[in-house]
Write a structure and sequence with these properties.
The complex is a heterodimer of chains A (about 260) and B (about 450). Chain A is built from 8 helices and 10 strands. Chain A has about 260 residues and is of the alpha/beta class. The radius of gyration of chain A is 19 Å and the shape is globular. With about 450 residues, chain B is an alpha/beta fold. Chain B contains 19 helices and 8 strands. In chain B, the strands form 2 sheets. Chain B has a 4-stranded parallel β-sheet, sandwiched between helices. In chain B, strands 6-5-7-8 form a 4-stranded parallel β-sheet, sandwiched between helices. In chain B, α13 links the parallel β5 and β6. In chain B, α2 runs antiparallel to α12, α4 packs across α6 and α9 runs parallel beside α12. The radius of gyration of chain B is 21 Å and the shape is globular. Classes of the chains: A alpha/beta (about 260), B alpha/beta (about 450). Chains A and B meet through α2 and β8 of A and α18 and α19 of B.
Chain lengths: ~260, ~450
């Protein structure tokens, strides 16, 4: 595929994403896969695919995500904070407060009017408030991850979960099920617990409207809906929320290639 | 003790040991002069005087090994009015400093496990757990710790010491002197608080004299106070040399070079050591030597160091041109120097030991950080949220927010522990620091 000038790869804990952008920073090509244990081999394979659609080699390339340092082919490694900020700002064209919920961590980034990172907060050393929290509980409740949000929103009542710890929440779910509580209210309570955790981080950074949501969990409608309810702000989700890290990385790479990258 | 024993102790503690340490120091100094033995692309080699500091500290612990044979030994908290004990000829051991040595030597977790296995909670300070674990197991990286004849604790750093030293007193069956320092909520300590501490100090004299086996010589107490003041003033001057660009001495180096002002305060050798250090730091400034190559970002550190990752943190920051130029922790050992008045020993000890940063409110710490941000031209603040040190860490969330929002100084909270490496998540810390540095580069 001609026209691709820069590449970004986001080696996350749950999924690995690679994207290609043209000289204007427009997204032209992307692949999203579950992250494999042998990250280097997976990166090698994805770069071969990129080389097939682009030039002989996928360069310049910027890597981000937890596994970014494993991408030895990268011209530069940049953290997810910078890349998500860059990607979302380019996709939406304004600053605000970005909530990114990934597989392993969640972060809140305060973006200035020009897309600059003003402040950020990340979750502590536990999986509460992350995609992993939902993954674990969806398995326990036998609900497909894709439909988790819809099922939660269909609930009339809401069960209260006192713990946001992934391990303890699972025990709590077992206890609620044993008491005859239906799956839907439990799921709604779980989503509420996750969102409350995110709101605490938003407070740390300070809410600068508008509120934006990215990461794999942005595809879950219950998170956006409950975030709106908790903050009183409309939540804006960019197109391809899961690709924002890789997209931002490609935009950084584009700068490296000496090309303008729009408003970024 | 037989004559042979006396001879053996004398030979080990006064001849062979010190001679071996001196040879080691010469080797270190030679390597420092030749620039060999130092591999870092980002950090300046340690100060030459660091070899001397290492010898002083090693010699202190060597003396400690044999101290029970000829001196009275006191175990003391880091914020204790140690001048009183030095004037009475005590050899002092700081379990907190010993804990830091265990942390840097990466044996603190093993020792902590000894305390945990004995039933002490993992939520207890890791210095306390390291110390108790060392006591229960008899293991220490310094060879041997002398048994105390006296325990001397002051509550101006935390309330943990109160219970920690009671446990020590219970196990070791030695007298415990406790100096209670009321918390200072406002700018100045009320006079009744000063009076309360002064009276406790005076009331402790008969107890400590009884253990010391001698009477307090006021002249010697004044001289100890004078030496304490001088060493603390020199230390403050050294730290303040970092107000220029580039900073000549990293806070990471300060963390290890502060050992003498903590555990050998009131000794002439300590004053001479810091005088030599100041001279060398001035030499660095004149020669344009910076602690971090191509200094781009100047950072302030809050809270205790992460002893088992000192070099890693320095390298991680140094690689990005970020220098730790000031810290509230090292500052604490210099900022009170002017309060020491050798001619009014009890009055001034009461005042000085009431004012440590940990005995004051969170608002005072915030004000201190703001002042340091101005003085040292700080670009960002790293707040180590130390799981072990609750009094230092409480309020940091709010302090971070207020620095970022009201003072527009980027600030980052790093969750770890000063001695327990099980609380340190390598990947997450590296990720946060890298993202923080990127933020500074915008």
């Amino acid at each position: 595929m001609s026209g691709i000038r820069a590449w970004g790869i986001d080696v996350g804990s749950s999924t690995t994403k690679i994207v290609g952008v043209d000289t204007e920073g427009v997204l032209h090509w992307d692949v999203l896969e579950d992250s494999e244990p042998r990250a280097e081999e997976q990166v090698e394979r994805l770069l071969q695919r990129a080389a097939e659609v682009g030039d002989a080699q996928a360069r310049p390339l910027v890597a981000t995500g937890y596994g970014r340092k494993l991408v030895r082919q990268a011209d530069r490694v940049v953290t997810e904070i910078t890349c998500h900020a860059r990607g979302v700002y380019r996709a939406l064209g304004h600053g605000g407060t970005l909530v990114d919920v990934g597989g392993q961590d969640s972060k809140v980034i305060g973006l200035g009017p020009d897309g600059e990172v003003l402040d950020f907060a990340m979750n502590d050393k536990c999986a509460a408030g992350t995609g992993r929290f939902l993954e674990n509980t969806s398995r326990r409740l036998g609900v497909d991850l894709e439909h988790l949000g819809e099922v939660a929103l269909s609930a009339g009542d809401e069960a209260t979960l006192s713990s946001t710890c992934t391990v303890f929440a699972e025990s709590e779910i077992v206890s609620l099920l044993a008491h005859g509580v239906a799956v839907e209210p439990i799921l709604k309570g779980l989503h509420r617990a996750l969102v409350e955790r995110l709101v605490a981080m938003i407070r740390t950074v300070g809410l600068r409207p508008p509120l934006m949501l990215s990461g794999g969990v942005a595809r879950n409608p219950a998170i956006a809906r409950l975030l709106e309810a908790e903050t009183g702000q409309r939540v804006i989700v960019p197109p391809h929320p899961q690709l924002m890290g890789a997209y931002g990385a490609a935009l950084v790479a584009l700068e490296k290639a000496g090309e303008p990258s729009g408003p970024v | 003790m037989t004559a042979l024993d006396v001879l053996r102790v004398y030979a080990s503690s006064r001849l062979i040991g010190p001679a071996a340490l001196r040879v080691q120091r010469w080797g270190n100094e030679w390597r420092a002069r030749a620039g060999s033995g130092w591999a870092s692309d980002y950090l300046a080699p340690p100060l030459r005087v660091a070899a001397r500091g290492k010898e002083m500290v090693a010699r202190h612990w060597l003396e400690g090994r044999y101290a029970n044979r000829n001196r009275k030994v006191a175990w003391v908290t880091s914020g204790a009015p140690v001048e009183l004990l030095h004037a009475l000829g005590f050899f002092t051991v700081y379990p907190e400093n010993h804990g830091a040595i265990c942390g840097a030597a990466r044996v603190a977790v093993d020792l902590s496990c000894e305390a945990e296995n004995a039933g002490y909670s993992r939520d207890l300070c890791s210095y306390a757990r390291t110390d108790l674990g060392s006591l229960f197991s008899g293991r220490t990286p310094v060879g041997r710790l002398p048994k105390p004849d006296l325990l001397f604790a002051c509550t101006n750093i935390c309330q943990t010491v109160l219970f920690w030293y009671r446990v020590l007193a219970h196990h070791l069956r030695v007298p415990l002197v406790l100096i209670d320092t009321p918390f200072i909520y406002f700018e100045t300590a009320p006079e009744h608080a000063v009076e309360y501490v002064r009276r406790q100090l005076e009331a402790s004299i008969p107890s400590v004299e009884r253990v010391a086996g001698r009477s307090l010589d006021t002249g010697r107490l004044k001289e100890t106070g004078r030496l304490s003041r001088e060493a603390s003033q020199l230390w403050m001057e050294i730290m303040e040399r970092n107000d220029g660009r580039p900073a000549p001495i990293s806070v990471v180096d300060q963390f290890t070079l502060m050992a003498p002002v903590v555990e050998m305060r009131g000794e002439p050798a300590t004053v001479n050591f810091y005088a030599a250090m100041l001279k060398e730091v001035d030499g660095r400034i004149a020669a344009g030597v910076s602690a971090v190559q191509h200094e781009k970002h100047r950072l302030l550190w809050d809270n205790l160091p992460i002893w088992y990752r000192l070099r890693d943190v320095a390298e991680m920051l140094g690689a990005e041109g970020a220098a730790l130029v000031a810290s509230t922790y090292t500052n604490a050992w210099g900022e009170l120097a002017d309060l020491i008045d050798p001619d009014q020993p009890f009055e001034s000890m009461a005042r000085t030991y009431l004012y440590p940063i940990l005995n004051r409110g969170a608002g005072h710490k915030l004000a201190t950080m703001r002042r340091m941000i101005e003085q040292y031209s700080i670009d960002g603040v790293l707040l180590h949220s130390d799981r072990s040190c609750k009094p230092y860490s409480i309020g940091q969330l709010d302090q971070r927010d207020r620095l970022a929002r009201e003072s527009s100084v980027p600030a980052l909270l790093l969750e770890a522990d000063h001695n327990d490496s099980r609380c340190y998540a390598e990947g997450q810390i590296a990720n946060r620091v890298a993202a923080f540095i990127e933020t500074l580069e915008r």
